[in-house]
Amino acid sequence: MKTMDIYAALRANSYPGRGIIIGRSADGKSAVTAYFIMGRSVNSRNRVFTETEDGIKTEAADPSKLSDPHLIIYSPVRVLGNKTIVTNGDQTDTIYELMDKQQTFEQSLRTRTYEDDAPNYTPRISGIMHVGEGKYNYAMNIIKSADGNPDCVERFTYTYTAPLAGVGHFIHTYMGDGSPLPSFEGEPEKISIPDSIEEFSKGLWDALNEDNKVSLFVRYIDIESGKAETVVINKYKKA
Fold first, then answer.
1. Which of 39, 110, 120, 219 maximizes the CB count within 10 A of its CB?
2. Is residue 239 part of a domain?
3. Is residue 20 within 8 Å of residue 170, measured between CB atoms?
4. Those residues with Cβ within 8 angstroms of residue 119's Cβ, 6 or more apart along the chain or in another chain
5. Does residue 134 form part of some domain?
6. Is the pTM of this model over 0.90?
7. How many domains does the chain have?
8. Is 147 a domain residue?
9. Which DSSP helix (H) or strand (E) runs through 98?
């Protein structure tokens, strides 16, 4: 698969929606993930990422302007032991709770479908990273309708058992702006991952569409020690 320039791809797409990146830093030392959200409406733009004990959650930047918390208020990132779960919805909690009961990542997601936001039927995108004892692997999943037909649920899981240094994969909800919004197509896109969390965070944030970007989360986890470094960027300030 050809390596895509993630910054150029984001600059060329005004509305990829929500996106997950997982990979390994160029020096091979860090497990890397990033998650961003975008919005077109006042309600979806009225959000910030707030750090929690085991990850992050979305909150209303201005609670007085929150008109519908459905599908926009959730925990995108949670940590369960040596596993970091990253998703674009409340399926984060589903994965966390069912994996805690010894079900697999894929089994837990079989209990969920695409989002109930007709006519878009936004895909649910999810990722999981296993970092422990100096080893690292990850998986990504997308649940979507069949080309916009809600009668058929399509499920795809991609596993990466020996991530290569400097290589990551990017999956997002939409191919671009539109009405209805066109769902992501194909397998996760191959991208390059730099060593520096500051460089990666700035590059991603600057490349996202200025009008539509809302928040960005980036985390680098040292594969040997498990120590994590996190960057959170919010366009809007909490009231």
1. 219
2. no
3. yes
4. 148, 180
5. yes
6. yes
7. 1
8. yes
9. helix 91-99
Which residues touch 210 (CB under 8 Å, ≥6 apart)?
none
Tokens of 58: 């979305």
| Spatial distance between the Cα atoms of 145 and 152, rounded to a whole number of angstroms | 6
Backbone angles phi, psi at 142, to 5 degrees: -135, 135
- Structural domain including 154 reads 6-234
Instruction: For 129-173, write each residue's pLDDT tens digit.
Output: 999 999 999 999 999 999 999 999 999 999 999 999 999 999 999
- Whether 1 is in a domain gets the answer no
